[in-house]
# Entry
Amino acid sequence: MNTLKRILCFLITILLLFPVLAYPQPKKQIIDYVFLLDTSGSMVGLPKGSGNTVIFPKVKSAINDYLNTIQSPANIFIYPYDEGLHDLKRFKIDNKSDIRQVQSHITNLKAEGNNTWIYRSLADTIDKMEEFRNNHPNENHIVRIFLYTDGKDTDYKGQYNIKSVMEHYQLKRGEYDWWLFYSTLGLELPKAERKILKNNEHVTYQKIDKQVVLPILVIENKISNLHYGNLWQKGNETKTAMFTLPSQDKLPQDLKITATPEFLNLSSKGLGVKVSPAEFEPKPEVDFGVSLINFQHNLEKCIGAH
# Structure
């Protein structure tokens, strides 16, 4: 249980997406879920006699379970890859019934490829998602990329490696609007590659046992900003935001979840943030008090902060 608890804690990320802007223009917020799935033959035990584990059905099942938690509006992108991306599919989610079509598509995916071009496929995915966002300038798109592979990159003659792709990723993402969840199935990346992933913001790496593919657990909200007004006189203010959590039956009963706010651009304005509760047990919904604190009482910087 302790090992499972540790792994689940690693996978759970609370995303607080409240930018500090002078006079923000509200945009429709949509989360784009991108599933970058290794479809090389090793995912289904090929070639015969290789000793490769049939893991693809478990991955598809974990994704289909997670899809049941997705709230509209959203986009779901299914990006299979082996020798690069292929058979790309986008599903627009306007209501819960749209999820069933995505789940059927994932269930019918096959793994028949001969190579595993991970980094080329990830770089192409980043470019495609940036292009998609640029084509929808009146919407606020939050990107979540879930990458699964049971192998190492075999694009030996390519120009891509984990360092160059992570540099590309950091150039494309904003402060809060991209996350990459990188999962290897049954093998662990070399230490140098794990270090590169660890040193990149908004990147989560996890080695997963081939026998048990853990559920995807991401806690997030769809509130783009909170309005605090003039903090010059008050000094601090607290607003409340509600988060929806995954089904409790998927979590260990003794699991504790820690909330850590990420407001990277506040310190330069003499402001700080606290959230309450900072630790809590799993429950269907939780109300967070998000406190914005004016440490310097700087009038010019704090008027109109949101």
Q: What stands out?
A: Confidence is low (pLDDT under 50) at residues 1-24, 301-306.
